Amino acid sequence: MRRCHLSAVLGLLLACSGARADEGMWLPAQLPQLAAQLKAAGFKGDPAQLNDVTRPPLAAVVSLGGCTASFVSPQGLIVTNHHCAMGAIQLNSTPERNLIRDGFIAAQRSEELSAGPAARVWVTVGFDKVTDRILAGARGKTGRAYYDAVDAARKAAVAACEAEPGYRCSVVEMYGGADFYLIKQLELQDIRLVYAPPESIGNYGDEIDNFMWPRHSGDFAFYRAYVGKDGKPAPFSKDNVPYQPPAHFTVSTAPVQVGDFAMVAGYPGVTFRHRTASEFANQIDWLLPNRVALLDGLIRTIDAATAGDPDKQVRYASTVASLKNNLKRAQGELDGLRRSDAVRVRREDETAMLAWLAKQPDGRRALAEIRALQVQLDAQQASRERDLILPFLRPGLLGAAVQIQRLALERGKPDALRETGYQQRDEALIEGGLKQLQRRYDPEVEKATLRFALKRYFALTPAQRLPEFDAVFGRDEAEAAQRLDALYAGTRLGDTATRLAALRQDAAQLAASDDPLLRAALTLQPALLRLEAESKQRAGELLRLRPAYMRALIAYRQSQGRAVYPDANGTLRVSFGKVSPLSPRDGIDYRPLTTVAGIVEKHTGVAPFDAPKPLLDAIARGDFGSTADPVLKTQTVDFMTNLDTTGGNSGSPVLDAEGRLIGLNFDSNWEAVSASWMYDPRYKRAIHVDMRYLRWLLAKVYPAPHLLQEMQLPAQ
Amino acid sequence: MRRCHLSAVLGLLLACSGARADEGMWLPAQLPQLAAQLKAAGFKGDPAQLNDVTRPPLAAVVSLGGCTASFVSPQGLIVTNHHCAMGAIQLNSTPERNLIRDGFIAAQRSEELSAGPAARVWVTVGFDKVTDRILAGARGKTGRAYYDAVDAARKAAVAACEAEPGYRCSVVEMYGGADFYLIKQLELQDIRLVYAPPESIGNYGDEIDNFMWPRHSGDFAFYRAYVGKDGKPAPFSKDNVPYQPPAHFTVSTAPVQVGDFAMVAGYPGVTFRHRTASEFANQIDWLLPNRVALLDGLIRTIDAATAGDPDKQVRYASTVASLKNNLKRAQGELDGLRRSDAVRVRREDETAMLAWLAKQPDGRRALAEIRALQVQLDAQQASRERDLILPFLRPGLLGAAVQIQRLALERGKPDALRETGYQQRDEALIEGGLKQLQRRYDPEVEKATLRFALKRYFALTPAQRLPEFDAVFGRDEAEAAQRLDALYAGTRLGDTATRLAALRQDAAQLAASDDPLLRAALTLQPALLRLEAESKQRAGELLRLRPAYMRALIAYRQSQGRAVYPDANGTLRVSFGKVSPLSPRDGIDYRPLTTVAGIVEKHTGVAPFDAPKPLLDAIARGDFGSTADPVLKTQTVDFMTNLDTTGGNSGSPVLDAEGRLIGLNFDSNWEAVSASWMYDPRYKRAIHVDMRYLRWLLAKVYPAPHLLQEMQLPAQ
């Protein structure tokens, strides 16, 4: 039986049997209409209560900016990931009192340590659709004008909202610009570190285990939020009092088992699930393989250019590490999307959607708009070879010269009109980067990377080449090699003082400079500004035209009895599913729960597998009390679900069928790297700290009985 | 209920409940007495028939020298591993007809290719205890005299046995010298290659998958043995006829499932399962950690000495690869033995044995002998630091000089009395090594490795240092560095012609040489000869005294109702157990059967994951016929059992409860590297090609219907 309640509200499509329960980063407002699926999945609460982010239980979920956290007591106690609290732990560490190494327990409130003046906790208090208000001035416009009208309306809405002190506001687009929401968040400013395990627990396995299963991290830490005596957000003060949140989670004392219902609430950053079939094909058949080849070639180029020279190797170590990380991610995403046959799957789905759309009353107009969108996407792809290579044509010192020229140009405008990244508040960061360059640059290596990138540039079609770049680098590899030698032999920017002096010059002074790199940067500038303008023009068109595609998709899914969640955009979302094993490859099964036995197995005594002695001793004693798993007869550590998460979900509360806190999300599995584009139920898993491990550590290993008491948890 | 039939025959202890069924490389003669365990494990055949290696079924199991194989037709058809047949495949490959890459199918007998004049198949026809004969002349002697007496008796027994043409004989010790067996083998000399899959099937995954699970190799090939028309072994001749073996295996057509009985018969090489507790402690607490540190340091030393110099890196690439392989093995063995807590387990077992022994009628005398053994072992361990480092003090060119001096010394004796490795038949090999050195040597790198090793040498206690080595290398690191510079600046052995000329000189000529490396080698020689003599003296004492320990162990196990198998020594053994999954680490389960899905998953198109197109196409078609697994609904590839195997078991037939061939052993898992010393039932697994995969390949992918017919197997 399939019953679908039709709703006129865009995106808030109703629960029908037929929807895939596991996939989806749902807007809270969609959840009451997914009641049937929630119930079928095992949820025992009232789905209607999930509707309002300003009331329990979702009001307990907060953003740390890039991470998620949640309240776990009426006295503002917050739990999140250890890696999300790392800044605060670092800030309070000294050689004498190394909180990273040793962990931290505030025995009483007065010992809680300020997480610093920049630390924030944002509590979402408003989540309202403002589509008409944002698009009112844009309708009828196209391209850059559309983009600018939307931008102006967004800024006005934010300014009006932030007129009330103590709040941060933002306008976010949903469904590719079909809808806009105004998000209002209470901005708590006095955040204090309450508890952190040693890094060798909180980050056990570090980079080696990153993205891996089985996992054995105790990736958690506690904060407490404070406010002024008037209950309003205030900077750190000894006189501040604990914030009393609108809601907090109860930590579960029940076991977690395979197949159990699980739900995660958090602030996922960005996904591309609803991109068009041509965007999928471009990503998988062109962009990722080419990015992999480019990064691989660049790494080899740097390796060859630094071989046998330890000084150069050190200078480029972090560059190479970052390139390798990007390469690994790109390869993982590519492997995953191929494994999921994503190009074909998405193409077949879109073809079916368009066929369905053609038969609908308003189908012709919608198809025309989708064709217009496709024209824009095709135009974008026409320069993809150039767009891929261009960032690599301004590395290190040349990049610094480009940045110096651009900042001088922007300084000629009122601050509010300067390009993002070149405003007054950005100048300190730019200066820091220019200083740091000294330790990360070698002219011979930089020339080698440029020769590598230029080889690809010279292979571009004439239409993709840029006269300004030709003017600087010449017409072919031989000419480029000579030009590069001259540029780097002549420049004085390699000297930090000279570079910083240039940063302080105005555009006219810089234009008069005879430094060959500054002159080259000035030559390149018009091309870079032109491309930027084209990009904004295209962004406007995509923002204008993509809603047609999304409306078609939503209507088509509605016809299938399925709801559509908007792609992740940093706003509060809920996913529900279950505790799940994984068969990552033929012949291998991953169990969904790990145990302390794995900590001992991985322990080598050398970081990142240097479990602290108190932990190893406690495991050896086997005294697990009420936190032991009744089936496994030992202490669990982490567990795995099929919940739909992405970057930004770190620290997110994982809830059981009763809405009690059973885990903290902290990672995904390697097989799910491709989930930014496609959720494949065979492979997508999320990795969580088991709250029973947290409870055991607080009870028996690094004791904090007062926190257990505050959370109304058993002492043992 | 425990019923043990006592037997006076040493080692042939009888089946009792209580024995661990999975562990054990049993002598065939022990099997009838393990009937109860065999039956309990699921064996449906008659254990009494396993007693005689010259009759069916074990007469079907043959040795290839380092590998095992088995007859699968009355016409001399033999199946073994692809990697065991690699020599024959290579020998018959040309650039135009690349059998390694493309595989090989002889469409008829006349197309079968000779495996070369050195290829052999050995059929065991005699397996007799000759303890009294071997020890008759040794009794009452000690040390070197004991060793020499045993050696003389062995040589005499072998000579008498080999008097009959067409046979190879050997005398092997069992239970550390408590027993000796005369093994007589028919030596088949005309071996021909019948079928080999492409390397990308036979060695799919190569080094990357080596020791790993899940596995997807089709590691099999077919030979056929030929004899003269008189039925006797003969070299290759067109007139030869297929050998008619005394037995052959029937290939199973039934599925393989987890828990199924399995039995393997083969020629395992060497194990150390019955070493004393002090030998276990020495291996795990001292030797392996120190070997790991030494190898790791040496690799770093070579890496540093070759950094930035591609020529040097190439010269030392194979040395480094071999060191890394040894390091990996040592680390794997160490990790495994620690995981199994082997020091403690063995110590507790031995302590209990000695306590039991003290209460036995003849216990005092046995304990005295065991104490004498311990004295020898202690003496051996007293110089362990030196014994570990000494081989690294004669690398490359210096090693060549030592070898040249030694060969000249040995040439002064009758050939039969020369030291093993320095006889006439070895000289070509020595010359080849001296030539090859040219591509594997650099004086600066060799000096760096010597400085590294000497640093450890100079840290030895005075008692362990050798005056001859001090004379050559000096008293400390500074002196050594100077000496090395002088040695390598002065030597002319770096020139191949000079080196080979030196090889042809006699001892007097060499003694007169002024080449500093040849002079250094001559100075070192007395020390090396002295250590060799000490080592033989000790070997004699261990051979004399170890039987007391083994007799005590056997008697003790008998009291526990358990039989004892002798450590592996290259003779025919049988192990039985079952098809078994594995949990290698917390959170991971390995399924015991892999499928063709894994071939596709691993396929990258680049070796060693370059599955050939006909295979990929056949998998895509999914046409698996009668070879498909009825439960998994697809084609299986490899499977895993808990059978007790080690190096030498490659190619061994794996049999089901009815004695039918279900698999070919080809590897162990990484967690079982430590099984040379201890069988840990939690981790020890053996990896086999599923005969159904072989049948499918022969039926549908690289067809050989005539071979299926010859084995009386279904065509599809």
Automatic annotation (TrEMBL), chains A, B:
It comes from Thermomonas hydrothermalis. GO terms for biological process: peptide catabolic process; proteolysis. It is an enzyme of class 3 (hydrolase). One of its GO terms (molecular function) is dipeptidyl-peptidase activity. Pfam families: Peptidase_S46. This is Dipeptidyl-peptidase. Its EC number is 3.4.14.-. Catalyzes the removal of dipeptides from the N-terminus of oligopeptides. Keywords: Aminopeptidase, Hydrolase, Protease, Serine protease, Signal. Belongs to the peptidase S46 family.
